[in-house]
Design a protein that fits this description.
alpha/beta; about 55% helix; about 10% strand; globular; binds BIS(adenosine)-5'-pentaphosphate
C-alpha cells in the first residue's frame, strides 16, 4: 500500500502515520523528520534547512526530493510506504509522480486529514509545551499555516483530479481517526478487523 497523508500542520499526520505503521507493516516516511534529523546531525543539508524550517517556510524542492529519493530506495519501502509531509506543493506532486513511475511504485491513495484551524492551534500549543519543537512558536505556526493555505492546499486538488483523494475527519479519539483512515483505503484489508 502506497499512501500519501495530507493535512495542515498539527492535523495529526505524524501521529496517525505511526499508528498505520503498526497496522499495515509499512514504513512512515516523514520529510519533516528526515529534515530534523539532518539539522540535528548538522549535515550540510541540515545547515541549509534549519533557518528555513525555523521561519516556517518550505525547504527547497530539490533538497527535499533528493532526500526522499534516497529514502524510497531503501529496501523497507519496496512493500509500500506512508508519505507524511510530502508533497507540499504542486511541483512536488509532479516530482513525486515521476519518481514513483521510475521506481514502478505508483501512488494508490492520498488521505487528507480534515481538522478545523482553531483545533490545530490548540494542538500545536499543547505539543509546543510538551516537546519544544523550534518551529512551534506562535509566529512560526502562523507562517506555517499561511504557507500551508497558499502552497499545500492545492495538493488536495491535484490528487482529486487523479481520483485518488479521500478526505477523513481528523477530529476525535486517535483510534477512531485511525479507523476512518483504514476505512478510506482503496482495497479491503484484513488489518481493519483488528483496528
Ligand atoms: P513537518 O514535520 O511535516 O510538520 P507539519 O506538516 O507542520 O506537521 P506537524 O508535524 O506539525 O503536525 P502533524 O500533522 O504531523 O501532527 P502531529 O501528529 O504531530 O514539517 C516541518 C517543516 O519541515 C516544514 O515547515 C518545512 O519547513 C519542512 N518540510 C517538511 N516537509 C517538507 C517538504 N515536503 N517540502 C519542503 N519543506 C518541508 O499532531 C500534532 C499534535 O496534536 C500532537 O501533539 C498530537 O499528539 C496531537 N494530536 C494528534 N492527533 C490528535 C487527535 N486526534 N486528538 C487530539 N490531539 C491530537
Amino acid at each position: 500500500m502506497r499512501i500519501v497523508l495530507l493535512g495542515a500542520p498539527g492535523s495529526g499526520k505524524g501521529t496517525q502515520s505511526q499508528r498505520l505503521v503498526e497496522r499495515l507493516g509499512i514504513p512512515q516516511i516523514s520529510t519533516g523528520d528526515l529534515l530534523r534529523a539532518a539539522v540535528k546531525a548538522a549535515t550540510s543539508l541540515g545547515l541549509k534547512a534549519r533557518a528555513v524550517m525555523e521561519a516556517g517556510q518550505l525547504v527547497s524542492d530539490e533538497i527535499v526530493l533528493a532526500m526522499l529519493e534516497e529514502r524510497l530506495e531503501q529496501p523497507d519501502a519496496v512493500a509500500g510506504f506512508i508519505l507524511d509531509g510530502y508533497p507540499r506543493n504542486v511541483a512536488q506532486c509532479e516530482a513525486l509522480e515521476a519518481l514513483l513511475a521510475r521506481l514502478g511504485q505508483p501512488l494508490e491513495v492520498a488521505i487528507k486529514l480534515d481538522v478545523p484551524s482553531e483545533l490545530i492551534v490548540e494542538r500545536i500549543a499543547g505539543r509546543a509545551a510538551a516537546q519544544g519543537r523550534k518551529d512551534d512558536t506562535p509566529e512560526t505556526v502562523r507562517e506555517r499555516l499561511r504557507v500551508y493555505a497558499e502552497q499545500t492546499e492545492p495538493v488536495a486538488g491535484y490528487f482529486a483530479a487523479e481520483g485518488k483523494l479521500r478526505i477523513v475527519d481528523g477530529v476525535g479519539e486517535l483510534a477512531e481517526v485511525s479507523r476512518r483512515i483504514l476505512d478510506a483505503l482503496p482495497t479491503p484489508r484484513a488489518v481493519r478487523a483488528s483496528a
